[in-house]
Amino acid sequence: MILTLVVFAVAVVLWTCTPLDDTFVALAAVVALLLFGVLPASALAVLGGSTTWLLIAAFVLAGGVSASGLPARLATSLVGRARSVRGLMHLTAFALLLTAFFVPSTSGRAALTLPVHRALRVNARVSRALGVLFPSVILLTAVATLVGAGAHLITSALLEQATGQGIGFGQWMLLGLPLAVVSAHVTAEVVLWLFTTRADRAEPLAGQVEPLAERVQPVAGQVEPVAERVQPVAGQVEPLDEPTVVPLAQPTVVPLGEPTVVPLDRPRVVPLDGSTAVPLAERTVVLAARSEGPLPGAPCSNSPRQHRQFSALTRTEITSLVIVGIVSAGWLTETWHHVPPEVTALAGAVAITAPRLGTTTLKAAFADIPWSLLLFMAATTMLGSALVSSGAAHTIATLVSPSHLLPTVIAVSLLAHLVIQSRSARSSVLVPIVIPLAAAAGMNPAALAFASTAAAGFCHTSTASAKPVALFAGAYRPRDLLKLSAVLAPITGALVLACAVLLWPHLGLPLK
């Protein structure tokens, strides 16, 4: 027991105070416990256990869905319906919530939605507010699903080992989805209040987002009328019934980073002194590259034709939507058909990578799996298991008073990101201690473990607190995070406490 505490304490110090890779530290700690006989060699089976396979299959599914473009289309389509800054904030929050069911990684969701933020056509102050909103909502809405973060799987695995029963996919969604919805929209209002003015909130929006999925498509439709009306025959131009010539001094070149369309309101023809037609490619130049932001001064892309084109789902998007829907339904109905969730996930992974049917290949999906994260999660799960099985967690728990246990657990979980940056590491540290504490206080270990994991999802104080926050670092100022954290941290704690006391007992997770 003493050896376990020493190894565990050294791991926490190395995670907190050194630049060593988190996965390396976790694996080194596991090796130490194996060498000294605290853990049996059979404990390595967790590397091929059901939790690991569930997450691998979920990442393959996410790779197929992301390859289809469905999450980005979903987010862009919803955000594009906003007509005010407040509406834009709330639709953004809702769209980000929905992405939690398609991508089982907060950093993956942040990378997926970063282009959506860059495509928004808003003023600098509102853009900065959205830069804070995106990672905040991504982190707080991960609690909506069991596969939303590796920490959730660690919590369920530790509960199953300690009590014989974990938290399944359906029960987790039933408990976490209401908290995720409320947290997303409360965060939107907090960001509005802290980072925008009354004039910003009253400013109407129209066509404030550039479509990401089919930006290049409208070019063909817009150029066709020119091709039909201007017929170069042996260097001659057929006369037009109506003059529709827009003189241009030079070709219009718009350097962009993402596939971007320069809308043509009218046919653009450069008249020459002679009768020679100017090739279309020389009249209007459109560069298809990656955009670093919205097209400056570009008109709104809200025409009925463009809206219809953008709203039409492609075959790959329909395929990914159907497969994810079937897998989610299988997870939710596990108690009826008794098919383990990892088996359902693997079936979905095979379907979405199948030749002809799938949206990606297995090789491409495997290349995108964060193997380091999986190893880290497996290693931290083993560390947590060692704390429970050796009795070290119970010894630590006896040092904490059981009175006011729930508020204390929530407060410590909220602040844990200041010293332990990894979400999975926080759960592997906190949950093994929370479980015996709950048992000693006569409370339900699952209720306190779930509350701790939900509260630990708050990690907004600094750029280094979480990967999604770091990915959006260029969209806000560091002091913006401190400003948000000072207001949002107590609100998040109050929401988790209210759910634990007032809501979750009615949904099958009583406190006692």
UniProtKB/TrEMBL annotation:
Superkingdom assignment: Bacteria
* Name under which the protein is recorded: Citrate transporter
GO cellular component annotations, sorted alphabetically?
plasma membrane
The residues that cross the membrane are 29-47, 54-75, 87-108, 129-154, 174-195, 373-397, 403-420, 486-507
Where does the record place it?
A: Membrane
> Is Methyltransferase set as a keyword in this record?
no
A Pfam family annotated for this UniProt entry: CitMHS
Biological process GO annotation list?
A: transmembrane transport
Origin species, per record, is Lentzea albidocapillata subsp. violacea
What is its membrane topology?
A: Multi-pass membrane protein
Residues of the Citrate transporter-like domain: 13-455
Which of UniProt's keywords are assigned here? Membrane, Repeat, Transmembrane, Transmembrane helix, Transport
